[in-house]
Design goal:
Elements lengths: L1 E5 L2 E6 L5 E3 L2 E3 L1 H11 L8 E5 L6 E7 L5 H18 L4 E7 L14 H9 L5 E8 L9 E2 L9
Parallel strand pairs: 6-7
Antiparallel strand pairs: 1-2, 3-4, 5-6, 7-8, 8-9
Length: 155
């Protein structure tokens, strides 16, 4: 766990093993989620996960759970997340994914499990609603890819 002391009180702020190393800079997933939630009121901190893209040290993945999401709403959320990742955290490229509300994996205590969400996403066990890659160098218009969605029985 990561934390700090103030006036002899300990504050736990996250997990050290969740840190993301992007181009030699350590990023805190919880800080990224908090920063996005400050400007994007359609998302909840309890329904977002951030992790490093497997095999790509310069790329991160931001995943959020959403119900009944329209393409225009995803486009707006995508732009806000991309701006925060590129401007505040200096991330040069990555991917933003909207999944079904039940797609974010939780621990038994209800916290978001970044690692298990990443594993389930990579294994194809999460229903993807929208998915879009980004680059800090690409300011052109883009097309969102709508994914076929269906309900999966629990595994």
């Amino acid at each position: 766990d990561k934390g700090f002391f103030i006036n002899q009180n300990i504050y736990i702020i996250g997990r050290k093993d969740n840190e993301i190393n992007v181009n030699g800079v350590l990023l805190d997933p919880e800080d990224i989620v908090f920063s996005v939630n400050e400007v994007e009121d359609k998302l909840s901190q309890r329904n977002c996960a951030v992790f490093q893209k497997t095999g790509r040290h310069e790329s991160i993945v931001f995943v959020f759970g959403a119900a009944n999401l329209e393409e225009s709403v995803f486009t707006s959320i995508f732009r806000n997340i991309k701006n925060i990742l590129c401007r505040k955290f200096k991330v040069s490229n990555g991917e933003i994914i909207a999944v079904s509300k039940s797609g974010i994996v939780r621990t038994p205590s209800g916290k978001v499990s970044m690692k298990k969400t990443q594993q389930h996403l990579e294994d194809g066990r999460i229903d993807i609603v929208f998915r879009k890659e980004f680059s800090s160098h690409d300011n052109s218009s883009f097309h969102v890819r709508k994914m076929k969605t269906y309900e999966r029985s629990p595994k």
